[in-house]
Write a structure and sequence with these properties.
alpha/beta, nine-stranded mixed sheet, 4 helices
Length: 163
């Protein structure tokens, strides 16, 4: 399984259920990487999307504790265990965990690849991704050249779990 996330230099990923910053090249990378794949997210992540709608051209799986929650165009599940059971139907490399913080933390032990857009700035944040640089089981296997969006520097970094 894969994860995909944009994180600032403190591994911050969001504030008030919004991304910290919107970088067009990061949005394009996300879209190109996840189109045609299975995306797994929490309810609040889904609700942060335009009109709160599932992502087009993907199999959307939404996790929520609310047993009455329904959303057209997505499979709604209620526990990580239910989701892991459902995900057995798909090839592992076709699955992308896309947030938020709680979902990332629950699924990180089941993932082998994490795509991080590392943003060289410290934002105010209330949601964080686990610091992979502090975890010896994760190693950087690809790192793009530094890119900029206006005066904001960022790079695309691929982490893989050591075998």
């Amino acid at each position: 399984m894969n994860m995909i996330v944009a994180a600032d230099r403190n591994w911050g990923i969001g504030l008030n259920n919004r991304l910290l910053v919107s970088i067009p090249a990061d949005m394009k990378f996300f879209r190109e990487t996840t189109t045609g794949k299975v995306v797994v997210m929490g309810r609040r992540t889904l609700e942060s999307f335009p009109n709160g709608l599932p992502l087009k051209n993907r199999t959307n799986i939404v996790l929520t504790r609310n047993p009455d929650y329904r959303v057209k165009g997505a499979l709604v599940l209620h526990t990580a265990e239910e989701a892991l059971d459902e995900l057995k139907k798909y090839a592992s490399d076709e699955i992308y965990i896309i947030g938020g913080e709680s979902i990332y933390r629950q699924f990180l032990p089941h993932c082998d690849v994490v795509h991080v857009t590392k943003i060289d700035h410290a934002y105010q944040a209330d949601a964080y991704f686990p610091n992979l640089d502090a975890m010896p089981e994760w190693v950087i296997t690809a790192d793009s050249d530094e890119q900029t969006y206006f005066d904001l520097a960022y790079s695309f970094v691929k982490y893989e779990r050591r075998k």
